[in-house]
Amino acid sequence: MADRAYKTDNPVVVIQSTLGKIAVELFPKEAPDTVANFLKLVEKGFYDGVLFHRVIPRFMVQTGDPTGTGRGGPGWTILDEFHPKLRHDKAGVLSMANAGPDTGGSQFFITLGATPHLDDRHAVFGRVIDGQEVVVKIGDAPRDRNDRPNTPLKMEKVEIAQRGLRG
User: Tell me, what's the pLDDT at 11?
Assistant: First the structure.
């Protein structure tokens, strides 16, 4: 569990990564199914030990694939949820990775800057509220030509720190 209180009524998840702690606030009102899917995976321990398999400086860091290849998932997909208030308009946006419409499952990314070209293509479901400097460190890690970090970087432990008013 987190060692601090968060000033939001929404759920908060803490990602303990190889390089430090990242706290993310989730948006269940705007993206209920995406948030429910994410929380279900967190509760199952699905994300524990999973690699950040794709990192691109000033763009995003991607994780959530248990195989570490960028092709894995939970064994199901969810429908995209787009909300006009949720945009890729700054660093720290939490959004579903996908291989096309309605193909999200477990993979997600965190932005390192505004990425408006992803709006209405990738479902935003949260934002970083603490630890964006850790996300930047992950994004700046030396990487190979496939954008995979040279040194494995992981989500060591992912936990629900705060359930929020809706859960």
Answer: 97
Domains and CATH numbers, the chain: 12-162 (2.40.100.10)
Specify whether 62 is catalytic. yes
Active site residue 26: no
Question: Does the pLDDT value for residue 3 go beyond 50?
Answer: no
> Quick check: is 98 catalytic?
yes
According to the model, what pLDDT value does residue 4 have?
A: 53
- On whether the CB atoms of residues 74 and 67 are closer than 8 A, the answer is no
Q: Which one of the listed residues 16, 37, 98, 132 is annotated catalytic?
A: 98
For the entire predicted model, the pTM comes to 0.95
54 belongs to the catalytic site: yes
Query: Could you confirm whether 122 is annotated as catalytic?
Result: yes
Residue 2 has pLDDT above 50, yes or no: no
Q: What angle do CA 101, 126, 3 make, to 5 degrees?
A: 145
